[in-house]
Amino acid sequence: MMTDVDDRLTAAELAQLWNTFMNNKMYKCVLLYCENKAEDQELTAIIKNAIQICDGIISEIIAIYEKENHPIPIAMNEDEDVNISAPKLYSEILMLSYIHDMTRYGMIGYSTAVSIAVREDVEELFNKALQEDIQLYKRTLSLLQSKGTYYRSPSIPIPEKIEIADKGSYLSGFVGKQRALTVVEVMNLYNDMQRNALGKAVFLGLSQTVASNDIEKFLLKCVNHFNKNVEKFANTLIKDNISTSPTLDSEVLHSTTPPFSERLMLGQVVMFIATLTGYYGTALGTVSRRDLGEIYAAVLVDTVELGNQAAKLLIKYGWLEQAPQSVDHKFQMK
């Protein structure tokens, strides 16, 4: 006997829709500020394209929400969370680097969303977002390269033969002979070094514009956290005579006028931390040297704790919007 198809949104689809809506609303605020400050024509065109993509995604999610009688999340908005008239806080190189990194984050997020989508409208939304994000990634990459500010992951000599791991040294790292880093380990260390360098620069700029003492102290703590991580990852590469990339600290300008609300500043921390913990978890599962496992485990714990502190501040100021929750049946029975 045929039964009606269950066409309700799944919890996984609701999660991806909510995360995507919240992130794109916040991302659009940042882009609007960057658009107002950018002078380079190619960068301005990229920013306008990114804003159009955000608007399209936001509109399509609202349409699905309205179809399902789902409340529209409050999220960030351009009326309350961005001051586009504030002086320039970041150089255009840092703006471009930020947008490029967001496209990388988007490709991972949208591909995950496509892989769990069941409903056709949800799958089409995220597949379109993924394709648009890939094209935007290519544009940001090309512009970074043309300006000589894209720092490629290090190259290594092509191996002459396939080698089988030696059980005595492959996993070692603390004492005795230490093997060279694998390409997988180099990839993780280098990329995570760059991501932390970007995070340090972003929050260094925000920390000099914030008004609340507790949020300023927290942002400076974030800067110190990212700086330590840059040093850990860079020093590990240097020990193996592998090149590192420059930091972005010098791309932070002198303005002390806040371009964003403190709510958005903390939202940026949460987004960075959510992204980094995912990367660290992946790295932890793929590195083999024991010393690298210990480095990533410690960094992951510290990063999660930083996220908890950000959440406490958001709750303190009444800014933490909850994701949709399942029914608490035990509470309902009381």
Automatic annotation (TrEMBL):
Pfam families with a match to the protein in the record: DUF3231
InterPro entries: DUF3231, Ferritin-like
Source organism, top-level taxon: Bacteria
Protein name according to UniProt: DUF3231 domain-containing protein
Organism per entry: Cytobacillus horneckiae
Taxonomic path: Bacteria, Bacillati, Bacillota, Bacilli, Bacillales
